[in-house]
Amino acid sequence: MKAIVCPDFGPVSNLDYRDRPDPSPGPRDVVIRAEAIGVNYPDGLLIQGLYQMKPQTPFVPGMEAAGVIEAVGDEVSHLKVGDRAVALVDLGGYAEKVLAPAAKVFALPDGLDYDEACAFMCAWGTSHHALKQRAQLKPGETLLVLGGAGSTGLAAIAIGKAMGAHVIAVASTDEKRDACLEAGAELALGYEGLREALKEKAPDGVDVAFDPVGGAAFDVASRAMARNGRLLVVGFASGEIPKFPVNLALLKEYSLIGVFWGAFTAREPEVYAANNRELFEWHAQGLVRPRIDERRPLSEAGEALARILDRGAIGKTILIP
Question: Signal sequence span per UniProt (predicted)?
Fold first, then answer.
């Protein structure tokens, strides 16, 4: 089979497209013949050696793939050969055939295509967990979404709307702000003059802030929180990890909450599976639909990642084997 291989930590341009041995399932594994492969911002960090996890090189990156199950292990009973499914993996997703633990493989309902299924795994899974378990977002609350046009940002907008929140999105260009409005935001703002705009548009503060950006945007959000608010630390796409003035939490009486989705999926697999079922149900009801930004051949994984790292993508990027 063909796969994308990271020979050593470094720029995404160093990725190789090469032959690899076909995987074989262990007793509790399945092998999926991929029809769609999701690309995520953390993939780029991992390849550069900038992520929390540093696997031994060489390795095949990629956390999500959807397609048709080709083989199942002897102890797997809830899936069978020929099922349409999507998988969450630690590594190995950028390949024509993907080995995955059966516990993290989900059969796809009718009407959910492979591209959308990939989007639901990491990006939407992160946003859903952030808003549901970590923030416990309530109907009628005001949700601020930074990085609104990224895959996690658009997901947070749509999920926040589905949960009954009033959503204010922040994005850097007119095109990105239009995408935020299409996803369900009631208001889309730019980063320039954001502090003053939030004072005007949300004078009582925001109840929940979703921040995958960090840097100066975090500083603005930290000053825009309402009493009993929840500021979610999701990531640092700006490249700058901010320093938090803890006196703000004291004076404004709000909470700073970390969101580590990978740890959540490992430590609470049953809750994670229930989250996926809810996303699938919302999709079937027409409440949510991922935006697919572009589809590229698997061989162009490096180019796709470079665009995401440069914050050029609007929505989800998919690789096609």
Answer: none
Q: What is the DSSP string of 191-202?
A: STTHHHHHHHH-
Pairing between β-strand 64-72 and β-strand 84-88 as defined by DSSP bridges: antiparallel
Q: Return the pLDDT at 311.
A: 86
**Which SS3 state, helix, strand or coil, does residue 21 take?**
coil
Q: pTM of whole model > 0.90? A: yes
Tokens of 150: 């990224």
Residue 247's contacts (CB-CB under 8 Å, 6 or more residues apart) are none
- pLDDT value for 53: 84
* Cα–Cα distance, 145 to 159 (Å, whole number): 11
CATH number at residue 158: 3.40.50.720
4's enclosing H/E stretch is strand 2-5
Q: What is the mean pLDDT of residues 135-154?
A: 97
Total domain count, the chain = 2
Report how far residue 198's alpha carbon sits from residue 204's, in angstroms, rounded to the nearest whole number: 9
Collect all residues with Cβ–Cβ distance below 8 Å to 21 and sequence separation of at least 6.
1
Peptide bond before residue 139 is cis, with ω within 30 degrees of 0: no
Q: In terms of domains, do 52 and 13 share one? A: yes
The whole-angstrom separation of Cα 248 and Cα 224 is 10
